[in-house]
Write a structure and sequence with these properties.
This protein has 14 helices and twelve strands. It has about 375 residues and is α/β, with parallel strands linked by helices. The strands form two sheets. A seven-stranded mixed sheet has the order 1-7-6-5-4-2-3, with helices on both faces. A five-stranded mixed sheet has the order 8-9-12-11-10. Helix 1 runs antiparallel to helix 2, helix 3 runs parallel beside helix 4 and helix 12 crosses helix 14. The chain binds pyridoxal-5'-phosphate (PLP). Pyridoxal-5'-phosphate binds next to helix 3 and helix 4.
């Protein structure tokens, strides 16, 4: 559509005309109704039953489709629900190639339920095209990536991977949680499916769980819709409202969070107890060139390594403004210990290879005053 992303965060694709609400309500009403009366036999008001569709949720799905350039999007009760729904597309014996550095919950889902249902998974460095190609088998159906990856910020080349996927008849799937549709639209760079934990940047306030599955192809959209109404992992009307409200400020939050993150990454680098800083916005980040080709920003996720596990533990216990908590993307800054939290379920040898040690920390930078955040880190690093 003709409007900029910032406008579409607020109006979707509605050509600047507000969604057509009763009484001209500017904000989306919460249709807290499980079921909808039929005007006549064989007739529908447009909605029948809220597991299948709900007016509040449909509006949210239309906004996310607009932001991602998708044919359709389903809103799920969490990010994991979206990934579990995605797995329903596959059958016994199907093989998926995944980024080796992946959100721990995804690894847990794949290695327990996924394998239990007869699927197979290979974890490779998806920034290395040759490694991905070498992992392709006759039974391979999809390549599943996070870019930048969580938490080691490895950048994968979406266009190159999509060319490889197309040549082998595979789906390319991107978990776009770390950048949000404001900074990256994988479907425009060759991906077939985009997944979000809407809990993070999209909702943006650490107050609700949500997930999204967006697809480019109308036929696949129909399959996903069928699986969605059949398995019932839908987002509630109230939570849909909260995410719509969150997305209205996505653009301003992303800009501010990124600005703060760059300042903090640069500051962290100068601290004697900090040994390594991973942020895609730093000029010497190894994936920076590829990242710049496929995004319009760097986001606000920073990982860093300190000199000892004591320093790491002390920092986690001493931060006052920054909360020691799982999750990311909200207006409140958070610090995470991936070893014990988000990546606790990743096999130890994988963690070691990736450098997710007891000295490794991850920051999600919020919208607080950057000076206050730096002072908080400074006292916690003493
Ligand atoms: C949080 C997260 C998920 C899972 O989403 P939930 O909303 O917590 O279920 C998936 N992928 C990434 C990259 C995440 O950060």
């Amino acid at each position: 559509m003709g409007y900029d992303t910032k406008t579409r965060c607020i109006h979707g694709d509605n050509d600047g005309v507000l969604f057509d609400h009763p009484f001209g309500a500017v904000s989306t009403p919460i249709y807290q109704s499980a079921t909808f009366a039929h005007p006549g036999v064989g007739e529908t008001s447009g909605h029948n039953y809220s597991r299948e569709s709900n007016p509040t949720r449909s509006e949210l799905e239309a906004i996310v489709s607009s932001l991602e350039g998708a044919a359709d999007t389903v809103a799920t009760s969490s990010g994991m629900a979206a990934i579990a729904l995605f797995l329903e597309l596959f059958e016994i014996g199907d093989h998926l190639i995944c980024s080796e550095d992946l959100y721990g919950g995804s690894v847990r889902l794949f290695d327990t339920n996924g394998k239990g249902h007869g699927l197979q998974f290979s974890y490779v460095d998806t920034s290395d095209l040759r490694a991905v190609e070498a992992a392709i088998r006759p039974s391979t159906r999809a390549i599943f990536v996070e870019t930048p990856s969580n938490p080691t910020m490895v950048v994968s080349d979406l266009e190159a991977l999509s060319n490889l996927a197309r040549a082998h008849g595979l789906l390319l799937v991107a978990d776009n949680t770390f950048l949000s549709p404001y900074f990256c639209n994988p479907l425009r760079h060759g991906a077939d499916v985009v997944i979000h934990s809407g809990t993070k940047f999209l909702a943006g306030h650490n107050d609700t769980l949500a997930g999204f599955l967006s697809v480019k192809d109308p036929d696949m959209a129909q399959r996903i819709r069928f699986l969605y109404k059949t398995t019932g992992s839908c987002l509630s009307p109230f939570d849909s409202f909260l995410v719509i409200r969150g997305i209205k400020t996505l653009a301003v939050r992303m800009e501010r969070q990124q600005e703060n993150a760059l300042r903090i990454a640069q500051w962290l680098r100068l601290q004697p107890k900090v040994k390594r800083v991973l942020y895609v916005g730093l000029e010497d980040h190894p994936g920076r060139e590829v990242h710049e080709r496929q995004t319009t920003g760097y986001g606000s996720m920073i990982s860093f390594e300190v000199d000892s596990s004591q320093t790491a533990v002390r920092l986690l216990e001493r931060v006052r403004l920054i909360a020691f908590a799982e999750s990311l993307g909200g207006v409140e800054s958070l610090v995470t210990y991936p070893l014990l939290q988000t990546h606790g379920d990743v096999p130890a040898e994988t963690r070691e290879r990736l450098g997710i040690t007891d000295r490794f920390l991850r920051l999600s930078i919020g919208i607080e005053d950057v000076g206050d955040l730096i002072r908080d880190l400074e006292q916690a690093l003493q």
